[in-house]
Amino acid sequence: MIASAASLAADLRALLTASKVIDNPVELATYAYDASFFTQIHPHPPEVAVIAGSREDVSALARFAHARGIPVTPRGAASGQAAGSVAVQGGIVLSLHAMDRILEIDRANLQAIVEPGVVHARLNETLGRERLIFPPDLGSTRMATVGGMASTNAHGMRAVKYGPTGSWVLGLEVVLADGTVIETGSIGSRAKQSSSGLDLTKAFVGSEGTLGIFTRLRLKVMPLPPARALVLGLFDRLESAGESVQAVFAAGITPSAIEIVDQRCIQAINLYRPALRLPEAEALLLFEVDGAPAGARWEAEKIAETIRSRATRTEWSDEPGRMAALWEGRSVVGAAIGLLRPGANRAYCGEDICVPVARIPETLREIQRISAEFTIPIATYGHIGNGNLHPGHLIDARDPSEVARVQKVADAIHDLALRMGGTTTGEHGVGAVRRPFMEREHGAALGAMRAIKRALDPRGILNPGKIFADDPGDEQGDSWRQARGPG
Ligand SMILES: Cc1cc2nc3c(=O)[nH]c(=O)nc-3n(C[C@H](O)[C@H](O)[C@H](O)COP(=O)(O)OP(=O)(O)OC[C@H]3O[C@@H](n4cnc5c(N)ncnc54)[C@H](O)[C@@H]3O)c2cc1C
Which of 78, 98, 118 corresponds to the end of one domain? Predict the structure, then answer.
């Protein structure tokens, strides 16, 4: 049993040579949050935070924590929206953000070897200088670390053509719960594909810090497409927008991104950027295509032609300035939504469902109904090409009744996603917030997931309270604190 946070910090300082140990309560308060609404209302500071400086330290820390049964919660940039990187059961938060070296860009083999703390935008800026790209393209590109992305299997706008982060991870160096270091994807390999053994890389991707701690990643990269083009479509019926997406696929085109913003988002964008003067519409779609210049132009023209009969306005461009202007509304929407209700707070809960593409219009109408039922304004946008929707709920967080109602809204939206034949999380992960839905979502498969968790982490020290935990009471955390007695 650990006597106190101070003695835990002292033990860790004696053990670790390249890492920083934090036990000052003021600094620890910053580790109590991520971008979720859950941590806004239930912040959980850890006993101690460690900023990891080397793989050897991560391994030594895991061995130490494993021997004593102390929870360890890995953390990247804490841009996650599921409370995944917050220590809901106390213990140690292990931040990997300072292990941020791009170790090698292997141009000949189209691979990058990186540490987990590399921020996504920095990786692509570096790759871009060599005309290469790591395609997953998330809205939090300037915050999210590649370790966090692999751990949540982040998707983003271009997943419709290029798939999730997991499709671009060839191998991982992982510190297991007992401190053992393994390399997945064959030791020292630079092969781009493999059928050798169980695909452990896939098992660790998306495990949200519950199976192991990533200390190095071998990523697949690709040549930067030479050209892009963009098509905008405005629709007076959600159904016409949904049908247009299906018609574009039926025309044999796979856009690199297909984005939707709904009527409320359009109103918000016009408040935030009045110069854009977007017309009133039930939905706005953006289709991005990429490839050779002539091919991108051809596809953009073809998309415009395909959607024209259903849209109230279409436009396409491959001119960089115009494309930036067309993208602008979509890129500011997250911030713009707040203007729909001055003084309101966007509550990130029930914010990441994914439904079958064919059921998007129906889902958007149901979200509007839920909004009316609970009298909480909701503006929705998302990656419609894959069916991933981000409803944005606006509340006055000082009003306890709105705080209670928005949590019911989140439950209703998660329930809706499952009824539609979808999932409660398209890209943000389960974390602490969506685990009550895991049994219903996965049934017996959740038992198989638990068996893997138990095999790799028999003492349950890695990110407890996430994905697998089934005691509803420990959502407020603290079971480890209670077990260890007064600190
Ligand atoms: C404005 C905004 C836009 C966003 N847009 C998108 C989007 O388009 N697509 C998308 O998928 N997500 C998006 N997100 C969510 C978030 O950015 C992603 O989930 C991202 O992958 C999290 O990375 P992070 O470094 O912040 O990880 P954190 O939030 O710190 O951690 C996330 C999870 O990963 C685990 N983890 C972190 N590092 C490691 C490691 N080295 N080893 C093992 N486990 C680890 C943590 O324990 C936690 O469970 C957005 C968030 C915001 C705030």
Answer: 98
